Amino acid sequence: MEDDFDMPPAEGLDEEMDMPEVSSGMKVGEEKEIGKEGLKKKLVKEGEGWDTPDNGDEVQVHYTGTLLDGSKFDSSRDRGEPFTFTLGQGQVIKGWDVGIKTMKKGENAVFTIPAALAYGESGSPPTIPPNATLQFDIELLSWVSVKDICKDGGIFKKIVKEGDKWESPKDLDEVFVKYEARLEDGTLVSKSDGVEFTVQNGHFCPALVKAVKTMKKGEKVTLLVKPQYAFGDKGKPAAGDEGAVPPNASLNITLELISWKTVSSITDDKRVMKKILKDGEGYEKPNEGAVVKLKLIGKLQDGTVFAKKGHSEGEELFEFKTDEEQVIEGLDRAVITMKKGEVALLTIAPEYAFGSVESKQDLAVVPSNSTIFYEVELISFEKEKESWDMKDTQEKIEAATKKKEEGNALFKVGKYTRATKRYEKAGKYIEYDNSFTDDEKKQSKALKITCNLNNAACKLKLKDYKQAEKLCTKVLELESRNVKALYRRAQAYINMADLELAEFDIKKALEIDPDNRDLKVEYKNMKEKVKEYNKKDAKFYGNMFAKMNKTNQNGPSPMSIDSKA
After folding, report:
1. Is there a smaller number of Cβ atoms within 10 Å at the N or the C end of the chain?
2. Tell me, what's the pLDDT at 528?
3. Contact indicator for 245, 189 with CB cutoff of 8 Å
4. How far apart are the C-alpha atoms of 429 and 400, rounded to whole Å?
């Protein structure tokens, strides 16, 4: 716009409008009202995609402004130069700030803007009269996204070059960036043509971490950084190649995210960590029971190589079956998170490696309590069949039976966590049996009962009483007079202190099998628990009443009396 007509915001309109979204399905020629203050939009030409600009974005438009009688008072088209401004910052009239937020790139629309959202009672002499309703023919050419990434005005991010895909780095990831930081007067204070750091550890100033977590691979941005995300009221002295940052100084930073290595925790306790050195293909990953083939190099913390498999020419790849204890637990659990072709560095703590004993490996001895490192490349894998891969119903029953037997073997040697996985896998094979014959349905029902009962026994051993109760309930839904299910559910209830429910199950089981010795022992245990809880209750209430009596013996506290009563 002309220098003497920079479209100042109308006075007294700082508050946000109550503005519903304009339907993305507007048709050319259709007119709709935006909000409740009389702003109207008529679509002239549809835009591209679905994205629209937001407050803080730098938008570029062409426009023509007219009065309702058609008198033109301004036009960027006549000047042959687009108009650029920051949306939602009061740099233009309110009707523009609100209306342009509903537009897509390339869209052309005519906005009818009432005086209250334009220049109000005073107008803008000499071209715009008082209380004038205006019409603007606006084409949204483009915009540059500017985001207040901390929502407190501390860091404004402007995207200079869009990145790839949709992922952004997380706290554990290692990022590789280029950056340049300057004071507001242009003085260079820090620069790097390539530096790698862990996101959660940060680098240079807090703003880099905040910004990089919002960026995509290859993205380049400029940051306007306020002191609280730079070096605050203390500033930063010059050091080495880096210049000084005065107290309470803002910074202008150019930042480019070149790449990053995804780092994730394989175990909940973060004792097995995986850093991806090279991304794999597609989305498929090995499942438990899959046969995997890989290249592997094992090292100690001092760099000593203790294992190297599949790397020499003509050497067979290292092969094993997952979840069969054929390798250390850390490697076993990490491999099923990998994709074909992925290369990863694993850091494995002793309890998931060779533990507290010395272990002789192919190329060196691994000392006791050693943290070890594996560089692994997953070459190929063959997944164990899932239920949906099996078309034949008899195949599903046979697979379920095999998993049940594997679970039983693991239970007998005290490996309850691994056993429970087998029982759950068995259940999945026969979960949907609508297509089974009557005889197959009988087999399926018997397997479901056995697997759920055995799984409940595992959960009791693992002290997962809630899951044990749920599994027993599943059995009782299939067979309401199953004594084992009632007995194990009662055990779960006792451990969850639901003694009334436990007593109900034990009594019901004794009605079915009155001579069952285990039930009688459990009933006795439950009665002891009831006595124990009753004693605790008696002690609790006894103490409470004793305190109340002591208070009463000291006499009541005096009451204030209203002399006017």
Report:
1. C
2. 80
3. yes
4. 6
Taking Cα atoms as reference points, which of 470, 384, 467, 399 lies closest to residue 430? 399
Eight-state DSSP code of residue 367: -
Cα–Cα distance measured from residue 15 to residue 138, given in angstroms and rounded to the nearest whole number:
24
Is residue 549 predicted with pLDDT exceeding 60? no
Q: What is the DSSP string of 19-70?
A: -PPPPTTPPTT-EEEETTTTEEEEEEE--BSS----TT-EEEEEEEEEETT-
First to last CA, the chain: 78
Q: What is the token pair recorded at 308?
A: 């190297």
| Segments in 430-512 forming alpha helices (H) | 438-461, 465-478, 483-495, 499-512
Contact partners, residue 210, CB within 8 Å, separation at least 6 = 149, 150, 155, 229
Percent of the residues in the chain that have a pLDDT greater than 90, as a whole number = 77
Name the residues annotated as catalytic.
63, 73-74, 93, 119, 136
Distance separating alpha carbons of residues 137 and 61, to the nearest angstrom: 10
Query: Can you name the residues that pair with 178 across neighbouring β-strands?
Result: 256
Q: Which of 83, 96, 232, 257 is nearest to 164 (CA)?
A: 257
Closest CA to 10 of 72, 96, 127: 96
Spatial CA neighbour of 494 closest among 503, 486, 485: 503
Mean pLDDT of 284-301: 96
pLDDT of 6 over the 50 cut: no
User: What b/e string do you get for 234-263 counting C-beta neighbours within 10 Å, with b at 16 or more?
Assistant: eebeeeeebbebeeebebebbbbbeebbbb
From start to end of 87-212, where are the E strands? 108-113, 134-144, 146-148, 155-161, 174-183, 188-198
Per the omega criterion (within 30 degrees of 0), is the bond before 126 cis?
yes
d(CA 505, CA 489): 7
CA distances from 307 to 333, 341, 458 (A): 19, 20, 36
pTM of the model: 0.67
**Mean pLDDT value of segment 523-529:** 80
Asked if residue 281 has pLDDT above 90, the reply is: yes
DSSP line for 315-343: PPPEEEETTTTSS-HHHHHHHTT--TT-E
Cβ atoms 404, 318 nearer than 8 A:
no
Q: What is the 3-state secondary structure (H, E, C) of 376-424?
A: EEEEEEECCCCHHHCCCHHHHHHHHHHHHHHHHHHHHCCCHHHHHHHHH
Question: How long a stretch of residues is the chain?
Answer: 565
Q: State the residue for tokens 């210049």.
A: 243
Distance CA 394, CA 401 (A): 11
Cα–Cα distance, 154 to 469 (Å, whole number): 52
Which segments of 101-138 does DSSP mark as H helices, in order? none
Q: Give the helix/strand (H/E) hosting 298.
A: strand 291-299
Helix 438-461 to helix 483-495 angle, to the nearest 10 degrees? Answer: 30
Percent of the chain with pLDDT over 70: 90
Query: What's the rounded Cα separation, in Å, for the pair 164 and 146?
Result: 18
DSSP 519: H
Do residues 269 and 351 make contact, with C-beta atoms less than 8 angstroms apart? no
